[in-house]
Amino acid sequence: MSSSTSKLQALTANIERIIRGKPQEVRFVITALIARGHILLEDNPGAGKTVLAKTLAQSVAEPTTEFSHTGGGVSFKRVQFTPDLLPMDLIGSYIFDESKKDFVFKRGPLFTHVLLADEINRASPKVQSALLECMAENQISSGDTTFELDPFFFTIATQNPIEMEGTYPLPAAQLDRFFMKISMGYVSEEVEFDIYTNYMEIGDSKHSVKHVLAYQDIIHLQNEAEKVHVHPELVRGIVRLVQATRNHPEVALGCSTRGGITFIKCLKAWALVNQRDFVIEDDIKALAQPVLHHRLIFRNRDAARTVLPQLVEAEVNRLSKMGIGKKS
Amino acid sequence: VDPAFLEYYTRQPTGGIYDSISKLAHSLAPKHIKPVDKVLAVRDFFLRRNEYGKRIFRYTLKPGKMDDPNIPSSKMLYEFLFKTHAGYCTYYAGASLFMLRAMGIPARFTTGFATVNRSDKNKGWYWFYASQAHAWTQVYFPEYGWLDFDMTIGNEDQQSAPKPDGTPPLPPPDPWLVLDAKADKVDLQTKRLDATFQSLLYLEKPYLLTSPLTRPIDVSMCRVIYNKVDTTLSVLQPGDSVIIVSYKDEARVIPELRKGIPIDKQVAAFPTPIIADEIHIRGKEKEKKKEESGVSGLKEEEKKKVTFEEIVRMAASIVGVALLLVLFAPLMYLVYRLIRASAATGTHRADQVYRLALYRLHMAGFERESETPLHYAHRQVDPQLGAGFEAFMVVYLRLKYSGQPMQSEDIRVVDDFAGKLGASIRRKTGAARALVNYFNLARALRYFQRPPYSETEETQTV
After folding, report:
1. Spatial distance between the Cα atoms of B350 and B400, rounded to a whole number of angstroms
2. pTM here?
3. Does the beta-carbon distance from A320 to B372 stay under 8 Å?
4. How far apart are alpha carbons A60 and A116 in whole angstroms?
5. pLDDT tens digit string along B252-299?
6. How far is A323 from chain B (nearest CA, A)?
């Protein structure tokens, strides 16, 4: 517990040297990593999405290490998604080898540990769905061959808001694969002042991000997160919350069972990131928005803003009134 | 008139259903009235409405059961008149034929086509369709001969369809005379109505007469509307307040108003009777008022009989409830306090410390909104009170959710917080103010009103 705490603190501090004034968002990203999930960052251009993704990737990656299944190191690849990108650009393709007189498979950028999928919604749906398999199944199929990916395959995707021009909205099934969808938002006045005065140093350190965690550390943290205790009453509360989203009249598509499982995984990781080995009611409140909101389809804009917080608040309030060892 | 002719056209089979049809017919109209009123009574019978304002009879092309051959027969006529009340033109025509003959009116059954589609190419030609086949009744009046009477009622569920060439249905014409009147006398036989009115609209201009005027109104052609649904004239009672509307140009026999002559004189010179096209019944306002005042008068008498003893008892209970309301908030505090005192050790004590603390903090003015207790302690309570609430919450949440046993260190944190809270509240707000705060009923109610979880949603999920 204490060793994982110090490791997590080192990782957080490392990222916060570059991403200023966004401690919550940094923790969300780390939570998704520890929960063995993927994360989607959505915001306007220039909010720091790519920098955050890159910094996280570099803090855990060893830039020199080539991708391998044995876990010798952590590799990091970045793909800039554009409308004319094709699935074989990601997966790789068979190329005729003159010397062997045969087709050999040339691996694409998906063969990595940490993948930064930048501006994912600018790519066409067929590329988006190519990403689906490796995110869901941890494997890549090309032709008749299926390649296994490392269990530690982490995608950080960024996307511009849907309303922007030249975007293909991600389908619900693809969105469901992302454990969290967070939005960076603009920083406060003081932080922005700090960024402007120190942008030279921040820019410099961007190129010299320290590599603080090794492959084994991440695997260890992921195993630790699995051991976090979730009280049965909290599980019951999550069941009620998930079912309430399905039965709410303003919600067209409620939370799936996979969404509920993801929520519990993220709660465990979030508790570990917050240096606890048990989940508390505050965690549900903190994670409901990033983990659940993008899985729901609301009937109108008003509902999209108010329904989930109301349901969560009611559930958390109910839990907070429950006594120790009592049933709610 | 030739008696043989009359005999032929009033011949009526007897026995079985025909007797019951005769009985029904005789119940519709008294014997002495004119034949035409008997015919109209039959028409009104088909237009009758139930207590909800819906027509009793309705038009349908499929009156019987699904597998019936659907051929009109005496049995189906009986079903139509007394049971299903649903049928098409043949049923209406057949039923009225037998009813009229039962009343001694010569009548015959006629079939033909109800055509509406004029040919565009050949002027004066019509299109005939099978669906326009129709049946109706003809009635013989010695003075006029055979006259057509179609008793088939329209299909109320169907809105007036747009014309085939797309022209919308005509809007109702503007009324040229509207009277705000009171019905004095209603004669159902002659279809005359005596109405008294003082204010009127003439060609869309309002006028007020200096004194009320009584005029006979001809209501033989008019629609009667009560509570926005069509009804028959028999609903109208003397004393009803009505609005009489005339809009058809054929009925417009009243001259234009001229300037310079007093309005009263001109209205008095209106030809009699005034022909009405619509009557809207507004009901007996005055009678209703009378009833209401009568009831309340009785109540007042009863009230006077209430004895002094009962007044004292009522006052005592009011004071008791008021006292309970005032003391509600502090009593709740004492209840929490007592429960906490009784909870000697362990997690149970931590629970009660938590509950009491939340209530006390709320009553001291630290109202928790939508935050979780931990966040509330961190953001709102500790910066102002410094009683170690957050430290307590951390311990409390661990006890609640981690499943780990309580340690001696935890007991110390809980006791520390329980001891310090009251003192820090008093220090912050002042002892007197802290006490007064407990009597804030509105605040206490807010604490208990906080919805634990909306019950409806829970029942949905179960």
Report:
1. 10
2. 0.57
3. yes
4. 13
5. 666 677 777 777 777 777 777 787 878 888 766 544 444 445 555 455
6. 6
